[in-house]
Amino acid sequence: MSSSESGVEAEAGAAGGAGGGSDGAERPEARLERAVRAAEQALIEFEIAVETFRVEVENFSRLHHQRLGPMYSRLDELEAQIAEARAASTGDPEDVRKAQEARARVMPMPGIEELFHDWLDSDGLSPEASAMLTEQPVRPPQRVRPSDEARKLYRELVRKAHPDLAQDDTERARRDEFISRVNAAYGRGDEALLRELSEEWAAGPVPEEWRPSRSEELYARLEWLAQRKEMLALVARELEESAIGGMLRIAPDDPDRLLEEIAEQLLTQVSEREAELAGLLGSGA
Q1: Cα dihedral across residues 70, 76, 79, 83: positive or negative
Q2: Distance between CA atoms of 184 and 84, rounded to whole angstroms?
Q3: 0.70 exceeded by pTM
Q4: Could you read off the pLDDT of 221-261 as tens digits, one per residue?
Q5: How far, in Å, CA of 242 to CA of 240, rounded?
Q6: At 125, is the secondary structure helix, strand, or coil?
Q7: Which of 64, 119, 203, 228 is the most buried (most CB within 10 A)?
Q8: C-alpha span between 33 and 218 (Å, rounded)
Protein backbone atom coordinates (compact mmCIF):
# COMPACT_ATOMS: atom_id res chain seq x y z
CA MET A 1 0.00 0.00 0.00
CA SER A 2 1.34 3.46 -0.87
CA SER A 3 1.97 6.19 1.70
CA SER A 4 -0.87 8.26 0.23
CA GLU A 5 -3.30 5.37 0.61
CA SER A 6 -2.09 4.84 4.17
CA GLY A 7 -2.67 8.51 4.87
CA VAL A 8 -6.18 8.32 3.43
CA GLU A 9 -7.01 5.32 5.58
CA ALA A 10 -5.56 6.98 8.66
CA GLU A 11 -7.57 10.13 8.01
CA ALA A 12 -10.77 8.17 7.37
CA GLY A 13 -10.14 6.04 10.43
CA ALA A 14 -9.65 9.10 12.59
CA ALA A 15 -12.87 10.57 11.26
CA GLY A 16 -14.66 7.31 11.96
CA GLY A 17 -13.37 7.18 15.52
CA ALA A 18 -14.35 10.77 16.15
CA GLY A 19 -17.88 10.19 14.85
CA GLY A 20 -18.50 6.87 16.60
CA GLY A 21 -20.12 6.14 19.89
CA SER A 22 -18.52 6.30 23.30
CA ASP A 23 -16.98 2.86 22.80
CA GLY A 24 -14.95 4.16 19.80
CA ALA A 25 -16.76 1.98 17.25
CA GLU A 26 -16.15 2.90 13.61
CA ARG A 27 -18.92 4.74 11.81
CA PRO A 28 -20.69 2.56 9.18
CA GLU A 29 -19.73 5.03 6.43
CA ALA A 30 -16.01 5.11 7.32
CA ARG A 31 -15.07 2.00 5.34
CA LEU A 32 -17.03 3.28 2.34
CA GLU A 33 -15.28 6.64 2.59
CA ARG A 34 -11.91 4.95 2.43
CA ALA A 35 -12.98 2.82 -0.52
CA VAL A 36 -14.27 5.84 -2.43
CA ARG A 37 -11.08 7.82 -1.85
CA ALA A 38 -8.86 4.92 -2.88
CA ALA A 39 -11.00 4.35 -6.01
CA GLU A 40 -10.82 8.06 -6.90
CA GLN A 41 -7.03 8.12 -6.69
CA ALA A 42 -6.72 4.86 -8.64
CA LEU A 43 -8.99 6.20 -11.37
CA ILE A 44 -7.03 9.44 -11.65
CA GLU A 45 -3.74 7.56 -12.02
CA PHE A 46 -5.33 5.30 -14.63
CA GLU A 47 -6.63 8.29 -16.58
CA ILE A 48 -3.16 9.85 -16.52
CA ALA A 49 -1.65 6.64 -17.89
CA VAL A 50 -4.27 6.32 -20.64
CA GLU A 51 -3.98 9.96 -21.71
CA THR A 52 -0.18 9.79 -21.71
CA PHE A 53 -0.28 6.72 -23.95
CA ARG A 54 -2.91 8.35 -26.20
CA VAL A 55 -0.63 11.34 -26.77
CA GLU A 56 2.32 9.03 -27.49
CA VAL A 57 0.23 7.06 -30.01
CA GLU A 58 -1.03 10.25 -31.65
CA ASN A 59 2.45 11.73 -31.96
CA PHE A 60 3.97 8.50 -33.26
CA SER A 61 1.12 8.15 -35.75
CA ARG A 62 1.84 11.67 -37.04
CA LEU A 63 5.53 10.89 -37.47
CA HIS A 64 4.74 7.53 -39.09
CA HIS A 65 2.46 9.22 -41.63
CA GLN A 66 4.89 12.05 -42.37
CA ARG A 67 7.88 9.84 -42.95
CA LEU A 68 6.51 6.54 -44.24
CA GLY A 69 3.26 7.53 -45.95
CA PRO A 70 4.94 8.45 -49.27
CA MET A 71 6.89 5.16 -49.26
CA TYR A 72 3.72 3.09 -48.81
CA SER A 73 2.09 5.04 -51.65
CA ARG A 74 5.10 4.45 -53.89
CA LEU A 75 5.00 0.70 -53.17
CA ASP A 76 1.28 0.54 -54.01
CA GLU A 77 1.88 2.37 -57.28
CA LEU A 78 4.78 0.08 -58.22
CA GLU A 79 2.72 -3.01 -57.44
CA ALA A 80 -0.03 -1.72 -59.75
CA GLN A 81 2.45 -0.90 -62.53
CA ILE A 82 4.08 -4.34 -62.25
CA ALA A 83 0.70 -6.08 -62.43
CA GLU A 84 -0.31 -3.93 -65.40
CA ALA A 85 2.97 -4.63 -67.22
CA ARG A 86 2.58 -8.36 -66.63
CA ALA A 87 -1.02 -8.30 -67.85
CA ALA A 88 -0.01 -6.36 -70.98
CA SER A 89 2.71 -8.90 -71.65
CA THR A 90 0.68 -12.08 -71.15
CA GLY A 91 -2.83 -10.97 -72.01
CA ASP A 92 -4.02 -13.58 -69.53
CA PRO A 93 -7.50 -12.69 -68.13
CA GLU A 94 -6.35 -13.63 -64.62
CA ASP A 95 -3.38 -11.27 -64.90
CA VAL A 96 -5.71 -8.55 -66.16
CA ARG A 97 -7.98 -9.09 -63.17
CA LYS A 98 -5.03 -8.90 -60.75
CA ALA A 99 -3.84 -5.71 -62.45
CA GLN A 100 -7.26 -4.12 -62.01
CA GLU A 101 -7.33 -5.09 -58.33
CA ALA A 102 -3.82 -3.72 -57.78
CA ARG A 103 -4.78 -0.43 -59.43
CA ALA A 104 -7.92 -0.21 -57.27
CA ARG A 105 -5.77 -0.48 -54.13
CA VAL A 106 -3.75 2.60 -55.07
CA MET A 107 -4.96 5.60 -53.11
CA PRO A 108 -6.04 8.62 -55.18
CA MET A 109 -3.23 11.07 -55.65
CA PRO A 110 -3.56 14.05 -53.28
CA GLY A 111 -3.33 17.62 -54.48
CA ILE A 112 0.13 18.99 -55.13
CA GLU A 113 0.00 21.25 -52.07
CA GLU A 114 -1.02 18.36 -49.82
CA LEU A 115 1.55 16.01 -51.31
CA PHE A 116 4.45 18.44 -51.12
CA HIS A 117 3.50 20.68 -48.20
CA ASP A 118 6.70 22.24 -46.81
CA TRP A 119 8.61 20.68 -49.73
CA LEU A 120 8.03 23.34 -52.37
CA ASP A 121 9.06 26.97 -52.20
CA SER A 122 9.16 29.87 -54.67
CA ASP A 123 12.29 28.44 -56.28
CA GLY A 124 10.90 24.93 -56.71
CA LEU A 125 11.98 22.05 -54.52
CA SER A 126 12.83 22.95 -50.94
CA PRO A 127 16.23 21.99 -49.47
CA GLU A 128 14.57 19.03 -47.71
CA ALA A 129 13.15 17.67 -50.95
CA SER A 130 16.46 18.13 -52.76
CA ALA A 131 18.26 16.36 -49.92
CA MET A 132 15.93 13.35 -50.16
CA LEU A 133 16.33 13.09 -53.93
CA THR A 134 20.11 13.21 -53.63
CA GLU A 135 20.13 10.77 -50.68
CA GLN A 136 21.52 13.41 -48.35
CA PRO A 137 20.45 13.69 -44.69
CA VAL A 138 16.98 15.15 -44.43
CA ARG A 139 15.74 17.39 -41.66
CA PRO A 140 13.60 15.15 -39.42
CA PRO A 141 9.87 15.86 -39.43
CA GLN A 142 8.53 18.23 -36.82
CA ARG A 143 7.55 16.27 -33.78
CA VAL A 144 5.48 16.95 -30.73
CA ARG A 145 6.82 14.97 -27.82
CA PRO A 146 6.30 16.34 -24.31
CA SER A 147 9.49 16.78 -22.32
CA ASP A 148 10.04 15.04 -19.00
CA GLU A 149 9.31 18.30 -17.20
CA ALA A 150 6.08 18.73 -19.19
CA ARG A 151 5.03 15.19 -18.23
CA LYS A 152 5.77 15.96 -14.58
CA LEU A 153 3.77 19.19 -14.66
CA TYR A 154 0.89 17.45 -16.43
CA ARG A 155 0.67 14.67 -13.87
CA GLU A 156 0.79 17.13 -10.97
CA LEU A 157 -1.94 19.31 -12.46
CA VAL A 158 -4.27 16.38 -13.19
CA ARG A 159 -3.83 15.01 -9.68
CA LYS A 160 -4.66 18.40 -8.17
CA ALA A 161 -7.43 19.57 -10.48
CA HIS A 162 -9.13 16.38 -11.64
CA PRO A 163 -12.93 16.83 -12.01
CA ASP A 164 -13.58 13.62 -10.10
CA LEU A 165 -12.42 15.43 -6.93
CA ALA A 166 -15.23 18.00 -7.24
CA GLN A 167 -17.97 17.95 -4.63
CA ASP A 168 -20.61 19.91 -6.58
CA ASP A 169 -21.58 20.71 -10.17
CA THR A 170 -20.08 24.21 -10.10
CA GLU A 171 -16.70 22.96 -8.95
CA ARG A 172 -16.79 20.10 -11.49
CA ALA A 173 -17.47 22.54 -14.34
CA ARG A 174 -14.51 24.69 -13.29
CA ARG A 175 -12.24 21.67 -13.11
CA ASP A 176 -13.51 20.27 -16.44
CA GLU A 177 -12.68 23.54 -18.21
CA PHE A 178 -9.27 23.77 -16.57
CA ILE A 179 -8.31 20.15 -17.30
CA SER A 180 -9.31 20.57 -20.97
CA ARG A 181 -6.75 23.37 -21.23
CA VAL A 182 -4.17 21.23 -19.44
CA ASN A 183 -4.74 18.35 -21.88
CA ALA A 184 -4.45 20.69 -24.87
CA ALA A 185 -1.18 22.16 -23.60
CA TYR A 186 0.22 18.69 -22.90
CA GLY A 187 -0.82 17.45 -26.34
CA ARG A 188 1.25 20.27 -27.86
CA GLY A 189 4.14 19.65 -25.50
CA ASP A 190 3.84 23.28 -24.32
CA GLU A 191 5.89 23.23 -21.12
CA ALA A 192 5.69 27.02 -20.63
CA LEU A 193 1.89 27.00 -20.77
CA LEU A 194 1.75 24.08 -18.35
CA ARG A 195 3.80 26.15 -15.90
CA GLU A 196 1.36 29.05 -16.30
CA LEU A 197 -1.57 26.71 -15.71
CA SER A 198 0.12 25.36 -12.59
CA GLU A 199 0.45 28.90 -11.23
CA GLU A 200 -3.16 29.63 -12.20
CA TRP A 201 -4.44 26.63 -10.29
CA ALA A 202 -2.31 27.45 -7.25
CA ALA A 203 -3.80 30.96 -7.16
CA GLY A 204 -7.38 29.75 -7.66
CA PRO A 205 -10.04 28.86 -5.10
CA VAL A 206 -9.20 26.02 -2.76
CA PRO A 207 -11.58 23.05 -3.11
CA GLU A 208 -13.77 22.41 -0.12
CA GLU A 209 -12.63 19.76 2.31
CA TRP A 210 -14.13 16.38 1.45
CA ARG A 211 -16.98 15.57 3.81
CA PRO A 212 -18.49 12.14 4.49
CA SER A 213 -21.70 11.36 2.59
CA ARG A 214 -24.55 8.99 3.27
CA SER A 215 -23.94 5.30 2.58
CA GLU A 216 -26.25 5.26 -0.43
CA GLU A 217 -24.39 8.14 -2.07
CA LEU A 218 -21.05 6.48 -1.40
CA TYR A 219 -22.21 3.24 -2.98
CA ALA A 220 -23.42 5.20 -6.03
CA ARG A 221 -20.06 6.95 -6.19
CA LEU A 222 -18.18 3.66 -6.17
CA GLU A 223 -20.39 2.32 -8.93
CA TRP A 224 -19.75 5.40 -11.08
CA LEU A 225 -16.01 5.14 -10.53
CA ALA A 226 -16.07 1.48 -11.57
CA GLN A 227 -18.01 2.28 -14.74
CA ARG A 228 -15.61 5.09 -15.58
CA LYS A 229 -12.63 2.76 -15.19
CA GLU A 230 -14.27 0.16 -17.44
CA MET A 231 -14.74 2.79 -20.14
CA LEU A 232 -11.09 3.90 -19.85
CA ALA A 233 -9.99 0.26 -20.01
CA LEU A 234 -11.78 -0.06 -23.35
CA VAL A 235 -10.02 3.07 -24.64
CA ALA A 236 -6.66 1.74 -23.46
CA ARG A 237 -7.29 -1.63 -25.10
CA GLU A 238 -8.18 0.01 -28.42
CA LEU A 239 -4.98 2.07 -28.28
CA GLU A 240 -2.84 -0.96 -27.45
CA GLU A 241 -4.42 -3.08 -30.19
CA SER A 242 -4.10 -0.41 -32.87
CA ALA A 243 -1.32 -0.70 -35.44
CA ILE A 244 0.52 2.31 -34.04
CA GLY A 245 0.06 1.11 -30.47
CA GLY A 246 1.53 -2.24 -31.46
CA MET A 247 4.57 -0.51 -32.94
CA LEU A 248 5.08 1.49 -29.75
CA ARG A 249 4.98 -1.70 -27.69
CA ILE A 250 7.79 -3.09 -29.86
CA ALA A 251 10.11 -0.15 -29.14
CA PRO A 252 8.67 1.96 -26.30
CA ASP A 253 12.02 3.53 -25.42
CA ASP A 254 13.23 4.35 -28.95
CA PRO A 255 10.32 4.74 -31.40
CA ASP A 256 12.47 6.90 -33.70
CA ARG A 257 14.81 3.98 -34.30
CA LEU A 258 11.82 1.78 -35.13
CA LEU A 259 10.73 4.30 -37.78
CA GLU A 260 14.24 4.25 -39.24
CA GLU A 261 14.19 0.45 -39.45
CA ILE A 262 10.78 0.40 -41.14
CA ALA A 263 11.91 3.12 -43.56
CA GLU A 264 14.98 1.07 -44.49
CA GLN A 265 12.81 -2.00 -45.13
CA LEU A 266 10.40 0.02 -47.29
CA LEU A 267 13.24 1.55 -49.30
CA THR A 268 14.59 -1.93 -49.98
CA GLN A 269 11.15 -3.07 -51.14
CA VAL A 270 10.83 -0.01 -53.38
CA SER A 271 14.19 -0.76 -55.00
CA GLU A 272 13.19 -4.39 -55.55
CA ARG A 273 9.86 -3.43 -57.12
CA GLU A 274 11.51 -0.83 -59.36
CA ALA A 275 13.97 -3.41 -60.59
CA GLU A 276 11.18 -5.90 -61.21
CA LEU A 277 9.18 -3.30 -63.14
CA ALA A 278 12.20 -2.33 -65.21
CA GLY A 279 12.75 -5.97 -66.09
CA LEU A 280 9.15 -6.42 -67.19
CA LEU A 281 9.15 -3.26 -69.28
CA GLY A 282 12.53 -4.17 -70.80
CA SER A 283 11.45 -7.68 -71.71
CA GLY A 284 8.30 -6.35 -73.32
CA ALA A 285 10.14 -3.75 -75.43
Answers
A1: negative
A2: 48
A3: no
A4: 888 888 989 998 988 888 888 888 888 877 777 777 878 88
A5: 6
A6: strand
A7: 64
A8: 7
